[in-house]
């Protein structure tokens, strides 16, 4: 496997006394022993330095897990006994869980009009689709959030990691935005929707100017000011 190959490669390099090789070998040996004992990488504790090294290995057992249960139509809003057992196991493992009804999702996918989808969900007592909950669970598990840019012609959603600073998020759109960052004119998503857009939010004093170290929040609507 990939760890065995890495150990073999580093064992040869260790003879050169290159800095850091011994630490990497020790880490790989620990990983191999854990896997041999049935302990996934995600379930073991490591230092921040070791976690960065492990991330570069791209190991499957280091990836987070999201358990998805398919339930019947009647249990689409509440789950059932079996899904509750899976939920308890996921909680014990500290990982993600969601249940959906594949049959209902298939029916929803056949509806082209958004109003029809909403009416269909209301008739069966659901507030949102299973697909929407699945996406939300995935974002939560991966520590991702969404912010928006909106103009007269289009609105765009951008995905960034939680804790991303304003100038870094700007770089997701274009490197010039990050390089020449001046400020981020920011409106919360709820204010943007309730007031009907940027102009009204500005008049109501709900638009604020944030600097490059501002931490992007879920649902923010942002206009970047930059100069290059």
Automatic annotation (TrEMBL):
Gene Ontology CC, one term: cytoplasm
Pfam families: YchF-GTPase_C
Keyword entries, A-Z: ATP-binding, Nucleotide-binding
Residue intervals of the TGS domain: 143-226
Family annotation (CDD domains): TGS_YchF_OLA1
UniProt keyword Flavoprotein present: no
InterPro entries with a match to the protein in the record: Beta-grasp_dom_sf, P-loop_NTPase, TGS, TGS-like, TGS-like_dom_sf, YchF_C
Entry annotated with the keyword ATP-binding: yes
Record-level Gene Ontology MF annotations: ATP binding; ATP hydrolysis activity
Record-linked PANTHER family: OBG GTPASE FAMILY, OBG-TYPE G DOMAIN-CONTAINING PROTEIN
Protein name: TGS domain-containing protein
């Amino acid at each position: 496997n990939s760890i065995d190959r890495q150990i073999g490669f580093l064992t040869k390099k260790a003879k050169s006394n290159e800095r850091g090789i011994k630490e990497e070998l020790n880490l790989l040996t620990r990983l191999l022993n854990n896997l041999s004992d049935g302990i996934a990488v995600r379930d073991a504790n490591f230092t921040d330095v070791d976690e960065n090294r492990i991330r570069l290995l791209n190991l499957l057992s280091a990836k987070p897990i999201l358990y998805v249960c398919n339930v019947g139509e009647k249990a689409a809003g509440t789950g059932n006994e079996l899904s509750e057992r899976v939920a308890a196991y996921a909680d014990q493992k500290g990982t993600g869980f969601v249940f959906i009804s594949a049959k209902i999702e298939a029916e929803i996918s056949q509806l082209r009009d958004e109003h029809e989808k909403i009416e269909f969900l209301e008739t069966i007592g659901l507030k949102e689709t299973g697909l929407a909950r699945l996406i939300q669970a995935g974002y939560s598990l991966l520590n991702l959030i969404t912010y928006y840019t909106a103009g007269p012609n289009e609105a765009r959603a951008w995905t960034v990691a939680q804790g991303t600073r304003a100038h870094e998020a700007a770089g997701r759109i274009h490197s010039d935005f990050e390089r020449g960052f001046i400020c981020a004119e920011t409106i919360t998503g709820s204010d943007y929707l309730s007031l009907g857009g940027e102009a009204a939010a500005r008049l109501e004093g709900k638009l604020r100017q944030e600097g490059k170290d501002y931490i992007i929040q879920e649902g923010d609507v942002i206009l970047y000011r930059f100069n290059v």
